[in-house]
Specification:
Helices cover 40% and strands 0% of the residues. The chain has three helices and no strands.
Amino acid sequence: MDFEQLVDNITPTIYEGLKRAVEIGKWPDGRVLTVEQREHCMAGVIAYDLKANVEQERVGYIDRGSKAEGEVCGDDHSHDDADQDQVLKWAE
């Protein structure tokens, strides 16, 4: 069975179990995941998310909100001239 077939056979219950294992680093019976197991679980979670969930519901989704519309850091300074030199003021 290849990876795609494995992902196709992941149920929502298995998905939640894999996600929980990655989160806490342990299997439901308390055994610690190896680095390799954690990587494989994470790959399964990501692959399942891609096929089963819309972008906003996927693990790791970041809602960029107004930042996607041009706001860079939330301050009231203009960032249009990103290449322009800025003066650094030292506080004494």
